[in-house]
Amino acid sequence: MPNQTVIAEWSFPVEWAKAREFARAVHDDHAEAEPFVPPPTFPVVLTAEFIEHLVVDILNLDRRRTVHGEQDYEYRRPLHVGERVRCRAWIIEDRAKEGRRSGRMRVIVTEIELSNEATGEIIGYERSTTIETASAADAAT
Amino acid sequence: MTAKTAPALRFGPVTRTDLVRYAGASGDFNPIHHDEGFAQSAGLPSVMAHGMFSAGLLASFVTRWFGAGSVRRYKVRFLDRVWPGDVLDAYGEVIREFMSDQGEPRAELSLKLRRQDGTMVITGAAEVVVWNMSQKSGRRLFENDHA
Q1: Diameter of chain A by CA atoms?
Q2: Which of A72, A91, A131, B125 has the greatest CB tally within 10 Å of its CB?
Q3: What is the pLDDT of residues A79-101, one digit of tens each?
């Protein structure tokens, strides 16, 4: 992973109010708990905009034919409210695949490394699979 | 000991308010998730849920089972769209218990999110630390927690 070409880098603070709002939106029953731990999928708040930019502006995929295929989080530890997280993104897979019924698809897997900006400690990884289908009708999700 | 399966967790029916709240919380304002006219002009019967909304619900099922901060791996595959009115059931099963390289007792889970008609919406897998297990059984959850 460190050998990949970094295509974007940014950082953000994990804000209590934003993370709790997200926890409530996914009906996490720890949303009101203290100390509060952001839900496992919370980093999507800080990465989705980049993925959208990647799909539309960098890869020039046809948005009507793209679907979100998979999402994968790997954590060495949970995110902490208040820490500032550095994101570094790279593409770990970009391949053509024959669909069972839909013809040729393009599958792109983006990996974003999450680390504590102050200490450099790696918190985890988010991997997101985007699929460009052969036709808009196959874009299911 | 770890319960090998958790009682199914029922969520829903999914409301448009759920989707608007998730849009605001996540920052994903693709109109296909909240604008009925836009969704219909795109050939859909109505607005549809964000995939990550459903993935978030399934993750909440995992943290309810094993505790906040327990998740070390959470992986989902999106199989079908979710619509307002859908009732979703989350299922989980412990398929392996082991000690991690860091010396944490962990469990590997197999996960499913299924619509009331039986359609599989998401399949997933997770790895969790087992120190903070909340064993709850026989409850229908998420039923009355809408604010």
Answers
A1: 50
A2: A131
A3: 999 999 999 999 999 999 887 77
CA distance B12 to A86: 35
Within-domain flag for A28? no
Closest-CA residue in chain B for A127? B75
Model-level pTM?
Answer: 0.90
Is B119 part of a structural domain of the chain?
yes
Long-range contact pairs involving A31-34 (C-beta distance under 8 Å, separation at least 24): A33/B68
Q: Among partner residues A39, A70, A74, which is closest to B60 by beta-carbon distance? A: A39
Residue B118 inside a domain? The answer is: yes
Decide if A37 is inside a domain: no
Q: Which domain holds residue B123?
A: 5-13+49-129
Question: A56 — contact with chain B (CB < 8 Å)?
Answer: no
Q: Which residues on chain A are in Cβ contact (under 8 Å) with B142?
A: 27
Give A95: exposed, middle or buried? Use CB within 10 Å, 0-12, 13-18, 19+: exposed
Report yes or no on B73 lying in a domain. Answer: yes
**CA dist B110 to A141, B121, B122, B146, Å?**
22, 14, 11, 27
Number of domains forming the structure of chain B: 1
pLDDT of residue B2: 57
Please tell me the total count of domains within chain A.
1
pLDDT along chain B (147 residues), means of 10: 77 97 94 93 94 98 94 97 97 94 92 97 97 42 37
User: Counting one residue from A and one from B, how many pairs have CB atoms under 8 Å apart?
Assistant: 113
CATH number at residue B58: 3.10.129.10
In a domain, A29, yes or no: no
Look up the CATH number of the domain holding residue A86: 3.10.129.10
Q: What is the mean pLDDT of chain A?
A: 90
Please report residues of A whose CB lies closer than 8 A to that of B80: 140-141
- Inspect the interface and report whether the beta carbons of A26 and B22 lie closer than 8 Å: yes
**Out of A21, A48, A72, closest to residue B75 by CB:** A72
User: Which region, left, alpha or beta, applies to residue B93 given φ > 0 means left and ψ of -120 to 50 means alpha?
Assistant: beta
Instruction: Kindly state whether residue A27 falls inside one of the protein's structural domains.
Output: no
